[in-house]
Amino acid sequence: MTTAQPRQDLRQDHQDSRDRQVQDLAVEPTPLALLLLGRDADPRSERGVECPGDLPAPSDPDLVARARAAKERLGDKVFVLGHHYQRDEVIQFADVTGDSFKLARDAAARPGAEYIVFCGVHFMAESADILTSDEQKVILPDLAAGCSMADMATAEQVAECWDVLTDAGIADRVVPVSYMNSSADIKSFTGEHGGTICTSSNARRALTWAFEQGEKVLFLPDQHLGRNTAVRDLGMSLDDCVVYNPHKPNGGLSERQLRDAKMILWRGHCSVHGRFSLDSVRDVRARIPGVNVLVHPECKHEVVAAADYVGSTEYIIKALEEAPAGSKWAIGTELNLVQRLANRFAPEGKEIVFLDRTVCFCSTMNRIDLPHLVWTLESLADGKEVNRIQVDRKTSDFAQLALERMLALP
Q1: How far does CA 76 lie from the centroid of its chain?
Q2: What is residue 198's three-state secondary structure?
Q3: Angle at 46 between CA 400 and CA 100, to 5 degrees
Q4: Three-class SS state of 345
Q5: In the chain, helix, strand, coil percent, each to 5?
Q6: Residue 355 contacts residue 335 (beta carbons within 8 Å)
Q7: Of 126, 123, 62, 119, which is closest to residue 91 (Cα–Cα)?
Q8: Does the N-terminal or the C-terminal CB of the chain have fewer CB atoms within 10 Å?
Q9: pLDDT in tens, 230-279
Q10: 278-308 residue pLDDT tens
Q11: Contact 155, 189 (CB under 8 A)
């Protein structure tokens, strides 16, 4: 392992490869995007989340061979999960790929695996720990791989919000529905207060169920998925929705607004999907006549309204699998996935481009890179447990209750 070279030099070969991939999709890297991708570093954003040990150098030509060797040494003791938004260099070592909930369930279905290495972000590893047995150990290759959306709702903030709803006299009529992209604490709050979890695939069913239990829904933490599902799928109006801002007194809402609303949306969003705009849709239609615009429901409401198709990550993949040869698609979701789909379907004559002109990787998801994965697998193979994610029993029990309610949805 080379240690004498400056860190920037060690990353150069790897970044040159990434830049070529970006150019293939006709997107332009911005300075901020390159910072988030790791070309530079901001120490203030990583306090308290450093991983112990020394990572292999990113330019190490033997990383792939080392990952394979360590995984072979571990054998059936390890089960590697790869989220759709992961880099190709990581995905190649995944035993299964999918969205966050599918992967957590896949982990639970492999009770013989001692180590579950989750190549995703923190809330996903928490969900896997909740659903797997006590004997299994969930490992996150980089503890800095968080989720900006999940971080927008803390347990303290949500407890304060519930107090506001109680003071307004409506808490007993409100059912919390929390998106899978939330911390274990928020899932636990949801379970304890009679609510359920949802994914982008079953949000409509979850909201339908919730309105059968109560008159109002507190939707956490993604306002866009909540709004799009309520308006687009359940026929509500935008006036039925209010946004609770945890950084303002009483969420920035009056008691009358809270009493009149059907959907109380948390002021949270996905930093990736939230950047797509109506201009992005108009621009791609002007550039590519006949293009089909397909976006994730975490996008803003005006983007979803202007799109031709809207659906979860699994829906997007299936739609492109079933698309006719020669069709043209602009996809509004994370760039690693779009890149992978573009390469996969190019031989079938399907033209797939990224909806926005600029880079839009999930910066925290991209923290799980090959050096972190190699370090993790080699450490486990050497008998050293690293970066284990554990959810305490009380939190886990209520969170599991909320997840079980989701699984029982009609």
Answers
A1: 27
A2: strand
A3: 30
A4: helix
A5: 50, 15, 35
A6: no
A7: 119
A8: C
A9: 999 999 999 999 999 999 999 999 999 999 999 999 999 998 999 999 99
A10: 999 999 999 999 999 999 999 999 999 999 9
A11: yes
Separation of CA 262 from chain center: 26
What is residue 7's predicted lDDT score, i.e. its pLDDT? 35
325 contacts 339 by C-beta, under 8 angstroms? no
Q: Which class for 43: exposed (0-12), middle (13-18), buried (19 or more C-beta within 10 A)?
A: exposed
| Gap between the Cα atoms of 177 and 406, Å rounded | 10
Q: Is 310 helix (H, G, I), strand (E, B) or coil?
A: strand
Q: What's the DSSP call for residue 366?
A: G
Distance CA 23, CA 134 (A): 45
CA atoms within 13 A on the CB side of 370: 21
DSSP β-ladder status, 78-83 and 115-119: parallel
Taken in order 284, 285, 291, 292, the sign of the CA dihedral is positive
Fill in the DSSP letter of residue 326. Answer: T
- Which strand (E) or helix (H) includes residue 115? strand 115-119
Q: Which residues have CB under 8 Å from 284's CB, separation 6+?
A: 291, 293, 330, 353, 355
Task: State the amino acid at position 313 in one-letter form.
Answer: T
Q: Flag whether pLDDT at 118 surpasses 80.
A: yes
Task: Assess contact for 375 and 56: CB atoms under 8 A.
Answer: yes
Q: From CA 318, how far away is CA 370, in angstroms rounded?
A: 28
Strands 351-354 and 241-244: unpaired
Provide the edge-to-edge strand list for the sheet that holds 196-198: 196-198, 174-179, 216-220, 263-266, 241-244
pLDDT bracket for residue 344 (50, 70, 90) = very high
Q: What does DSSP say about strands 96-98 and 78-83: parallel, antiparallel, or unpaired?
A: parallel
Residue 206 has pLDDT above 50, yes or no: yes
Angle between helices 122-131 and 100-108 (to 10 degrees): 30
Helices (H), 346-388: 370-381
Select the more confidently predicted residue: 378 or 361.
Answer: 378
Size of the chain in residues: 410
Distance CA 78, CA 114 (A): 6
Q: Between helices 313-322 and 335-345, what is the axis angle to 10°?
A: 20
| Percentage, residues of the chain above pLDDT 70 | 87
